[in-house]
Amino acid sequence: MARKVFVEVTARFDTEGNVTPISLLWEDGTVYEIDRVLDVRRAASLKAGGMGFRYTVRINGRQSYLFYEAPKWFVEAKA
Question: Burial level of 53, CB count in 10 A (0-12/13-18/19+)?
């Protein structure tokens, strides 16, 4: 099973209430810019557990999932 890695996220909030993550700060201090948000939906993290909004994002050309489980953001990492 994967583990949850809680990350700091910089996000843009528009006038309609939509949230768009722009970058995330990894646990080692590296900042990763999010190239593009490909999809947003309510979904569970099947690998690490939890329920919230799952953002399918592209970072450095690679697809990944970023979860918003209010009030925290996390990604799935290998245990």
Answer: middle
Distance, C-alpha 61 to centroid of its chain: 15
Q: How far apart are CA 57 and CA 23, in angstroms?
A: 10
- pLDDT band for position 1 (50/70/90)? confident
CB 73 within 8 A of CB 67: yes
8-52: pLDDT as tens digits: 999 999 999 999 999 999 999 999 999 999 999 999 998 898 889
Residue 5: both structure tokens together: 């890695």
In angstroms, the CA 10 to CA 8 distance is: 7
Q: Answer for the pair 11, 20: CB distance below 8 angstroms, yes or no.
A: yes
How far apart are the C-alpha atoms of 21 and 13, rounded to whole Å? 9
Q: Give the integer Cα–Cα distance in Å for 2 and 14.
A: 32
